[in-house]
Amino acid sequence: MNKKNELYHFINVIRQKKLLTLFIKNIFGYKNFHDYNYIFRVINEKERVIIDIYDNISDNRFNRYIFDFGISNNESNYSNSNVFVTYINVLRTEKPNNKLEKLGYLFMLDGSEKIAYAATFLDKDIVEILKK
Hints:
Layout lengths: L2 H14 L3 H9 L9 E7 L3 E8 L6 E7 L9 E3 L2 E7 L9 H8 L4 H8 L5 H8 L1
Parallel strand pairs: 3-5
Antiparallel strand pairs: 1-2, 2-3, 4-5
């Protein structure tokens, strides 16, 4: 399984295990967040994994997070009228600054290195999914 598909599979297992709300709180920094606060979608494209979250918590009601596993020069983040897009080129992320970048970078690592790194910023229940 390639790195992009690993991320997509990981997110789907989190959904199946009913840990998606915990994952969103953990990665996106929401404090007072519940299952009824959002609609979530994940898309697996040719070289990208795209996460869409429509919520009633943030200032930007629709958030799109693009994790690009290809060689691309598109690295811009932008927003307009309640839409916020964050673009992360995983192959170019060397020193992650936030949890979103860390999530992308995590899937460039292998084996025990991936597990040890995940434990530095993800909840233990989510790290257990990576171990399996």
